[in-house]
């Protein structure tokens, strides 16, 4: 990656960022300049997708170095980009100030629309059997600035194509509702006029089913869309592939979905994600249990082909014919159902695949250094 200009502060763990309203306001007051200049700078960064060095040109010459010495205009360092040779996926690998790697995935649809899959944690405590990130272990939460910077930098990557991110999905590394505070702060900034001004309706937050936090989030952001990684309508099967399911049984989760339906517009549905695993959750009786569990709920089923991950050879994805039969059974019962097309297989788009080993090595070396200190 090219080095940053001298006028741009590299992100550090202690440097306040352009995403932090209080820190930005404090710097503005110390430097005694008009609030309109902050709005102009943020517009250049988040609406016009200009690089930090270009965006700084919106400030008077005498303020550029002073302001950028106090406020970091980035929170992450973009290290690598992997473009799929078979579809419109691009994997972006970032480094945090502490040196941990995280990833985001750009998904370009044939319609020209672009979605960005963002990460909320380094690692994940949910430890789902099918997920590479869960096998990484838990390192720590991302800050709101680190979540938001994925969006800003993805938009800058897309600007060369004359496009920008249309849909944001919190389906990357981590369980968003285990990092409720940072994710809430990020959603506030994403949707605010002073930030990205991104429509609530084009944001989807996916959770493995942290019911209490999901209800709090929906009360605070009722216009955001929500998805639950269900993957089974049988409690024993769900616990087998999602250890956290023991804390949030299906009966309670169903009540949560019902309350979300009451909170949200009649046109809003809760997405149920269902990873198709051969011999585990893809039999006709599994579909029937799913139909019964979903009865009277306003939901949309999303059937997902399995992206194989390292260290999980016991899991095999259902074949296409099985997925289609399963989907037809759901549709025949009146359940809105979509079969997702899996993108980015050739760039390991299964979340966490590329960065897992690197983060494990860093975590081990950090632990060793702490033990020797």
UniProtKB/TrEMBL annotation:
GO cellular component, one term: cytoplasm
Enzyme Commission identifier(s): 2.1.1.224
Domain Radical SAM core: 110-345
Gene Ontology terms, MF aspect: 4 iron, 4 sulfur cluster binding; metal ion binding; RNA methyltransferase activity
Main EC class the enzyme belongs to: transferase
Database matches in Gene3D superfamilies: Aldolase class I (3.20.20.70)
InterPro entries (UniProt xref): Aldolase_TIM (IPR013785), Methyltransferase_A (IPR040072), rRNA_lsu_MTrfase_RlmN/Cfr (IPR004383), rSAM (IPR007197), rSAM_sf (IPR058240)
Listed cofactors: [4Fe-4S] cluster
Keywords from the named record: 4Fe-4S, Cytoplasm, Disulfide bond, Iron, Iron-sulfur, Metal-binding, Methyltransferase, S-adenosyl-L-methionine, Transferase
Predominant localisation class: cytoplasm
Subcellular location: Cytoplasm
GO terms (BP aspect): rRNA base methylation; tRNA methylation
Coiled coil: none
One Pfam family here: Radical_SAM
Family to which the UniProt record says this protein belongs: Belongs to the radical SAM superfamily. RlmN family.
Protein name per Swiss-Prot or TrEMBL: Ribosomal RNA large subunit methyltransferase Cfr
Organism lineage string: Bacteria, Pseudomonadati, Planctomycetota, Planctomycetia, Pirellulales
Name of encoding gene: cfr
